[in-house]
Amino acid sequence: MKNQLILSLLAICGLTSCSNNSDDNYEEIPSYPFVEAEFGSTVDLGNLANYANQTVPAYIIKDNSQGNLITDKGATLGRVLFYDKNLSSNNTISCASCHKQEFAFSDTNVASTGVNGTTGRHSMRLINSRFASETKFFWNERALNLETQTTMPIKDHGEMGFSGENGDLSFDDLITKLNAIGYYKELFKFVYGTEEITEAKIQSALAQFIRSIQSFDSKYDAGRALATNDGQPFSNFTAQENQGKNLFLSPPVFNTNGVRTSGGLGCAGCHRAPEFDIDPNTLNNGIIGTIAGTGIDTGNTRAPSLRDLVRTDGTTNGPMMHTGVITTLQAAIGHYGTINLAPGNNNLDPRLTPGGVGQQLNLTATEVNAVIAFLRTLSGTDVYTNTKWSNPFN
């Protein structure tokens, strides 16, 4: 009602702004009629959501923003782009079609649906993508950074269809398309000071929005805030959760046959606390199949953060690994329990082959259940429902 009253007064005055004194200098009040018509109160450019100054725990020290720092304006534009199906050639697919908020920005399908088929790898969760030493993106790290990654699905024939090949429209055609949409003229001017739309601006805004998606309200975070370091028992953990944490963090001790005789599971060797991101030097983890189940694909060496693998109710946020072949935490731990040296896999991480043989962790049911209990402490709740990461078109 307040906004409607202001607009009515402006119309009565016949001016962008009005004053009782005709000698006053008039201050232009920006208006965004296309944004307001499309989004209503879900995108309020006069009262932006907090993306730039979110609370980050002091023990989180990694940040791969690389000069593209999050701004409230940029992330707001990125949110619109992320959810807009206009970014696909047939107006049916958005980034959010494969990265759904209710599943920690992943997909419950093994392969996500695109405009011309399905994706070649399972859609990776986007939780805490900013807080990682690894700056490359996609499972096989083919994107040098998040900015580059953001428009690659748009330019993919199977995913969003602006490839410029196989009869597809080109990315330049997408730019023309967006230029004809009123709310983009207003949003790009609001963020960048000009209506000009470029791929670099799209990449910057999308990357800011994705990096803003963070999850630090888990049971783990509550415990870590009270502890001196990760190795210390957390006062809010159960005995089982603390046991699982120790097993996760502690390296295993192997005999000459690659069988664990003592120690932990060594998960933190690749998935490093407290961010639980992937070590950039990590190689293949032994899963070398393709999503279709045939062929060898050994180049997949990246992984998302282990945060929010599951919801707090214990249900998974979709299948795991680039093939989606693993659907439970028990199966994920079991995979590392016995590593097979598959023919053709010349990219297997040496940390999984002590003494040149595939590791055998010799796990007990008690250990597996303890690690599962710990992994569940890494899940928060806010990321699933916070409106600043939700669909503005709803």
From TrEMBL:
It comes from Flavobacterium cheniae. PROSITE patterns: CYTC, PROKAR_LIPOPROTEIN. It is found in: Cell envelope. The lineage of its organism: Bacteria, Pseudomonadati, Bacteroidota, Flavobacteriia, Flavobacteriales. Residues 73-182, 239-379 form the Cytochrome c domain. This is Cytochrome c peroxidase. Residues 1-22 form the signal peptide. Keywords: Heme, Iron, Metal-binding, Oxidoreductase, Peroxidase, Signal. It comes from the Bacteria. One of its GO terms (cellular component) is cell envelope. GO terms for molecular function: cytochrome-c peroxidase activity; electron transfer activity; heme binding; metal ion binding. Gene3D superfamilies: Cytochrome c-like domain (1.10.760.10).
